[in-house]
Every structure is written in C-alpha cells, then in structure tokens.
Design brief:
Blueprint: E1 9-11, H1 20-34, E2 39-43, H2 49-62, H3 65-71, E3 86-88, E4 98-103, H4 112-115, H5 135-160, E5 180-186, E6 196-197, E7 203-209, E8 215-220, E9 226-230, E10 233-236, E11 244-248, H6 250-255, E12 265-268, E13 274-281, H7 310-325
Parallel strand pairs: 1-2
Antiparallel strand pairs: 2-11, 3-4, 4-5, 5-13, 6-7, 7-12, 8-11, 8-13, 9-10, 9-12
Helix pairs in contact: 1-5
C-alpha cells in the first residue's frame, strides 16, 4: 500500500484579518508545508465549494459536442486562434479528459495587451448564455474570489520568506494577471482509452510534472488521485471535499532559488467521474522580480537565478510542459 504524504491543513483565515502575530503563525505553517512534501490544504478560505461543484457539473452535463468544438482551442479546432482560453476536447479512443479554461475577465478588447496582440492574452469566449444561464457570471465571480485567496496566500508566503507582507503586492495586479482557471472533468467510462504507465508500474492520467504557475490553488472531488515525489518515493496525497490544495509552481521556485521548491507530482488513473478545478496564479506579463533567498539562507554557489520576465516564463514553460506530457 502507498504511504500518505504529510499534507497539513492550515486555517488561512488570519491572513484576511489584522493580527500580525496570527499571520506570522500561518506563515510559519506555510513555509514548513512547502518545504516539506510541498502541499497543504487551505481551510476557511471563504469559497463556496459546493456551488462550485454544482455549477461545473451542470456545465459539463449540458455542453453539446457542437458547442465544445466551437469553443475548442487551436489544438483541436484550427479555426480558433486561442491557445489558452477555450475547450480542451476528448479524442475518442485516445483521450478521455476534457476541460474548459478561461482567463482574466479584465482582458477585454480595449485592454492594452489585447490591443497589441500580446501572447498569452485572450478575450474569453463563453458558451451561449441563454443555453448556460448564469455560467459566465459565476465563472467571473469565482475567478476574483480565488484570485483574492491567492493574494492572501502570497502575503502569507512573503512573511514566510522574511519579507514584508506587501512584498509581492505590486506584481499582483487584477487588471494584468495572466492567471487561469481550468474546469477539468475526468469521466467514468466502461471502455477507457489506453492510459500511460509510469516506470514503477503506476497507471497514470497525467505524467509527473511541475506546475507552471506562481502557486496553484486546486479544488477537486474527494477521489484520491494525486501523488507527490519525495525522498521516500511516490506518496499519495490525502483528499478533502472542503479545502483548497495549495502548492508552489516553478516561478516561485525560481524567485526563491528553490527555497520554496515546486513539488514533482502526477495524476493516477482512476476510472471515476470527478472534477479537478485548478487556479493557476500568475503575475502580469511585464513582471520581472529579482530572485532572492531569505535572510540567513546562504546564496547558492552558482549564484542567484537570473531575472525572468513573467510572460516569457509562461510561454516557454507551457510549451515545455506540452512537449513533455502532451496537449491536455
């Protein structure tokens, strides 16, 4: 039997409050978790996760094949120029997972980065509002809810790194964030397409990877499926039907010179109807913070990492992930 990883549940409500001592206590827990197995559950986050499940399940239940194709990203529909926002389709006999990804609701036609055609910036296309009443409004509301949770978590992370609480604030612009929500559905099928097998024999829905993000904030159905690679080997992550699962992405690892590393993890193949709803929290395109190490932590012998402009990071890292693990 696979061992369970040590994934603590942290009450993050103090991060929304005024008590500095309570915030620093949460920050200490965040540091310990991210430097341990690399994951923690955030409790008391303020998101209505039951409503989230209900809306997303209804969306996937009512989408027609024609609607999916009309919204499909360029990898599936050559008539669509979107590479991020849109539908990621099933392929009969090859791929069963499907999803809908949407971006910053502030990316409207008059947004400066949209007007210049900047990569990674797209105006969201949505399914027909009459056929999917309230779906767009809910998704836009949810985007800002989980964005605010992410900002609070980054403020706690700043404290964990020995920095002022507002250390990252100038980079976390609502108008420019490249953050994205993916509404992923894993179906139950009587006849499932072929699945991948890891070197250790574990059947996988998605191979081992590091998240392309600053942090990832995930809500998913309480069906155990994730594993993290540790010094003790691959360990299962516990599940929760109430809390948000948090981990560092490769940009936070880059910024902190791996003081807060991005955990290597994978998705086991489980033939069960379930949802996986990650929010990939990103800075804006032009953000270019100087990498650092916390006070008292020695600088690596190789020196500090170079500055990596966020838009360049996102483009190259997403391409590398697709090249390694395939188009989702």
């Amino acid at each position: 039997m696979i061992q369970m990883a040590d994934v603590p549940t942290i009450d993050i409500s103090p991060l929304f409050g005024d008590s500095q001592s309570e915030k620093e206590s949460v920050a200490h827990e965040i540091e310990k978790a991210l430097r341990g197995a690399g994951f923690f559950y955030a409790a008391n986050h303020g998101v209505d996760v039951q409503r989230l499940q209900d809306v997303v399940n209804e969306f996937h239940r009512t989408m027609t094949d024609d609607e999916k194709f009309d919204l499909a990203i360029r990898a599936y529909n050559k008539n669509n120029q979107h590479v991020r926002n849109g539908y990621y389709m099933t392929i009969k006999g090859k791929k069963a997972v499907e999803s809908f990804c949407y971006l910053n609701p502030s990316f409207r036609p008059d947004h400066p980065m949209i007007r210049t055609g900047a990569p990674m910036h797209e105006v969201n296309d949505w399914p027909d509002e009459a056929a999917h009443l309230g779906f767009r409004a809910f998704c836009e509301e949810y985007f800002w809810q989980v964005f605010d949770v992410s900002v609070a978590l980054m403020r706690g992370t700043a404290l964990a790194l020995g920095k002022p609480e507002d250390f990252f604030d100038s980079e976390m612009s609502r108008g420019d964030t490249l953050s994205a929500v993916s509404l992923i559905r894993y179906p139950y099928l009587e006849s499932y397409p072929p699945v991948k097998t890891a070197p250790d024999g574990t059947k996988l829905s998605f191979e081992d990877h590091l998240d392309v993000s600053l942090i990832t904030v995930l809500y998913q159905t309480a069906v155990q499926n994730l594993q993290v690679e540790t010094s003790a080997g691959w360990l299962d992550l516990p599940t929760s039907d109430r809390d948000l699962l948090i981990n560092a992405g490769t940009y936070l690892a880059h910024l902190t010179n791996d003081f807060l590393p991005a955990p290597n993890h994978r998705v086991k193949f489980i033939n069960a109807e379930r949802l996986s709803l990650p929010f990939f929290f990103h800075f804006g395109n032009n953000s270019a913070m100087e990498p650092f190490v916390p006070d008292g932590v020695p600088v690596p012998e190789r020196g500090l990492n170079p500055v990596w402009q966020y838009g360049q990071y996102l483009r190259s890292s997403l391409r590398a992930l697709i090249d390694k693990n395939g188009q989702t």
